[in-house]
């Protein structure tokens, strides 16, 4: 399914079960996908061409769909491809019902898959930011890095948790990236919500002409505020 429409959230995937405890939200299931987009996520692209960025359902060949293991060990994963120069696209998701003033850790598992063999220039990054003070989510321009995030930062590195590109890949392995541990491209720490802000948006951003695809299979947002 193409995710190029110059807007965010025109097509939403259906909800799926999550593990919600007193201090974290963690996805348990990754199916069914709807038109190539994982449950609870939505597509975005800064292009008006619907085929400039593609969202697809990926299948792990080494995971038994009938066996339930760890929450991140799911048979399906989100696959993102881009086809045209200068185009950025991916998927995004808002985590709602968080507490203002509390600090949150974001963890996500990603895989650059076969992009280590890709010869064209490409990028794959994971970002997170608290939402706008009026309660609205982020715009395409904010996710593309061309408009300031609510905290005032702007540019390719704004809100960045992880970065991959030529020479900085996962070598086909699933890697957990976190706001509280050093990793490639980490630019932010754990996120503390301002007063009256109760949500965080996490988004994946990919670019590269004719890319073979990058993946994401698991995410968790955890309240790590010290309990008194």
Give a structural overview.
With about 230 residues, this protein is mainly β. Helix content is about 0%, strand content about 35%. The protein is built from 1 helix and 14 strands. It starts with 7 loop residues before the first strand and ends in a 5-residue tail after the last strand. About 10% of the residues have low confidence.
Characteristics:
228 residues; mainly beta; Jelly Rolls; eight-stranded antiparallel beta sheet; six-stranded antiparallel beta sheet; 1 helix
Shape: globular
Strand content: 35-45%
SS element count, helices: 1
Structural Rg: 16 Å
Helix fraction bin: under 10%
| Amino- and carboxy-terminal Cα gap | 48 Å
Which regions contain 5 or more consecutive residues with pLDDT less than 50?
4-21
CATH superfamily: Galactose-binding domain-like
Mean pLDDT: 87
SSE series: EEEEEEEEEHEEEEE
Q: Which structural class is indicated by helix and strand composition?
A: mainly beta
What secondary-structure arrangement, pairings included, does this model have?
Elements: E1 8-12, E2 18-20, E3 24-27, E4 42-45, E5 53-59, E6 76-82, E7 89-95, E8 103-111, E9 123-130, H1 140-144, E10 160-164, E11 175-178, E12 191-192, E13 200-207, E14 214-223
Antiparallel strand pairs: 1-4, 2-3, 3-14, 4-7, 5-6, 6-14, 7-13, 8-11, 8-12, 8-14, 9-10, 9-13
């Amino acid at each position: 399914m193409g995710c190029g429409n110059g807007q965010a959230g025109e097509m939403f995937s259906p909800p799926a079960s999550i593990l919600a405890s007193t201090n974290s939200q963690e996805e348990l299931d990754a199916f069914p996908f709807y038109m190539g987009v994982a449950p609870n996520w939505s597509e975005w692209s800064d292009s008006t061409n619907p085929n400039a960025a593609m969202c697809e359902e990926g299948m792990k060949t080494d995971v038994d769909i009938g066996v339930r293991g760890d929450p991140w060990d799911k048979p399906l994963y989100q696959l993102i491809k881009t086809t045209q120069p200068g185009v950025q696209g991916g998927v995004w998701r808002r985590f709602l019902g968080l507490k203002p003033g509390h600090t949150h850790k974001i963890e996500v598992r990603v895989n650059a898959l076969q992009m280590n063999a890709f010869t064209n220039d490409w990028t794959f990054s994971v970002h997170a930011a608290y939402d706008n003070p009026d309660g609205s989510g982020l715009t395409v321009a904010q996710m593309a890095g061309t408009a300031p995030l609510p905290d005032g930062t702007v540019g390719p590195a704004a809100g960045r948790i992880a970065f991959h590109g030529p020479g900085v890949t996962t070598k086909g392995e699933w890697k957990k990236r976190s706001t509280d541990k050093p990793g490639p491209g980490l630019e932010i720490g754990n996120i503390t919500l301002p007063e009256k802000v109760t949500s965080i948006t996490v988004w994946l951003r990919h670019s590269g002409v004719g890319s073979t695809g990058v993946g994401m299979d698991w995410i968790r947002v955890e309240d790590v505020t010290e309990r008194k």
